[in-house]
Every structure is written in C-alpha cells, then in structure tokens.
Amino acid sequence: FFSLLCETSHSSHTTPPHLLSSDRSSHYSAAKMTLATVAYFSAGGLFTAIYSNAVRRFPIMRKPQLHVVCVGVGAAIGYQAHLLEEFLDANAAETKSIQKNKAEKFFPNGY
Question: How far, in Å, CA of 83 to CA of 62, rounded?
C-alpha cells in the first residue's frame, strides 16, 4: 500500500489516484470516496430535518418519516455529486492530454 502512495505522489496532481491505475486498491479508494460523499450528504439531510424542527421550537423528532426522507434525499444528492466529480475528473484528464498533444504540435521546443 505504501508503494502505491509513493508511485501516485509523483504523478499529476490534477488527476485523482483512483483514476490513474486500475488495480484493486484504486477501486477500494473510489468506493471509499463514494461512501464518504454519500455519508456526508446523508448527515446533511438529517441535520436539515433536525434543525428545521429545532428552529420552529418543535420536538426534534416530530415526524420521523421526514427524517428518513431527508436522509434519502441527501444520499441521492451525494451520489449524484460523486458521479459528477468522477465525470469532471475524467473529462479534465482527457482534455489535459489533448491539450498537451496540441501544445507539443505548435510548440515543439516547449512553451
């Protein structure tokens, strides 16, 4: 595992390590990042439900079904945010490789 960290530390800092290689540890990293994003947004949904009841001076667990719905909506938004991040990272890496080739074509000695 430590050798994997050392290898990716010398690579481009704009591309996440889980997009650079296709071995098992990179898939674990991507799954861990997905879980963290979904958990963060789910906690945000729960906080929204609890905070809205607390501000209105209602009991915090006034409608428990609302809390479940808010957690579900937060998880869905978190998963979509993760998919968007993955798409943008892949798109940025592709664009960077295309632009690098164009730069070498127009500036053969570097720029």
Answer: 33
21-40 tens-digit pLDDT: 555 555 556 677 788 889 99
**10 Å Cβ neighbour count for 73?**
16
pTM: 0.60
Q: How far apart are CA 30 and CA 33, in angstroms?
A: 5
End-to-end CA distance of the chain: 36
Nearest to 40 by CA among 88, 85, 82, 86: 82
Distance CA 52, CA 46 (A): 10
